[in-house]
């Protein structure tokens, strides 16, 4: 049996969650594939160094995965539970 996901994030909910964990993002864009976002970090804030931002994002409930864009540590690819575009996030 597949367990239901407790937290489903849309773009707005992800931005708010980033703020709660003190990740300074310049922008968060939604990819065509549902449940995939690109987070552009504020480089001068230094939060990308040593994987700090990756760990903070990975700790957000509803986030399944975080990958650094190869060669660009200020861009993170974030995977969350997919939500239909017409639904509101929990």
Question: What does this protein look like?
Answer:
This protein is an alpha+beta fold and 90 residues long. It has one domain: 2-Layer Sandwich (Gyrase A, domain 2). The protein is 19% helix and 31% strand. It has helices at residues 11-20, 52-58, and strands spanning 25-30, 36-41, 63-69, 72-80. A 4-stranded antiparallel beta sheet has the order 1-2-4-3, with helices on one face. Strand 1 (25-30) and strand 2 form a beta hairpin. The longest helix has 10 residues, at 11-20. It is globular.
Order of strands across the biggest sheet? 1-2-4-3
DSSP E strands, number: 4
Radius of gyration: 13 Å
Number of H/I helices = 2
Shape: globular
Low-confidence stretches: none
Structural class: alpha+beta
What is the third-level CATH name, the topology? Answer: Gyrase A, domain 2
Average of per-residue pLDDT values: 86
User: CATH class, anyone?
Assistant: Alpha Beta
CATH architecture identity? 2-Layer Sandwich
> How many angstroms separate the termini?
22 Å
Strand residues, percent: 25-35%
Helix content: 10-25%
Biggest sheet overview: 4 strands, antiparallel
Give the SSE string.
HEEHEE
Counted up, domains total: 1
Brief summary of the model shown:
This protein is α+β, with helices and mostly antiparallel strands and 90 residues long.
List keywords for this structure.
90 residues, Gyrase A, domain 2, 2 helices, globular
Present the secondary structure layout.
Blueprint: H1 11-20, E1 25-30, E2 36-41, H2 52-58, E3 63-69, E4 72-80
Antiparallel strand pairs: 1-2, 2-4, 3-4
């Amino acid at each position: 049996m597949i367990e239901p996901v407790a937290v489903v994030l849309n773009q707005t909910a992800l931005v708010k969650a980033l703020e709660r964990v003190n990740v300074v993002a310049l922008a968060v864009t939604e990819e065509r594939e549902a449940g995939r976002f690109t987070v552009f970090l504020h480089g001068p804030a230094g939060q990308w160094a040593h994987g700090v931002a990756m760990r903070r994002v990975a700790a957000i409930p509803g986030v399944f995965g975080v990958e650094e864009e190869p060669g660009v540590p200020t861009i993170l690819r974030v995977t969350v539970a997919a939500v239909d575009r017409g639904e509101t996030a929990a």
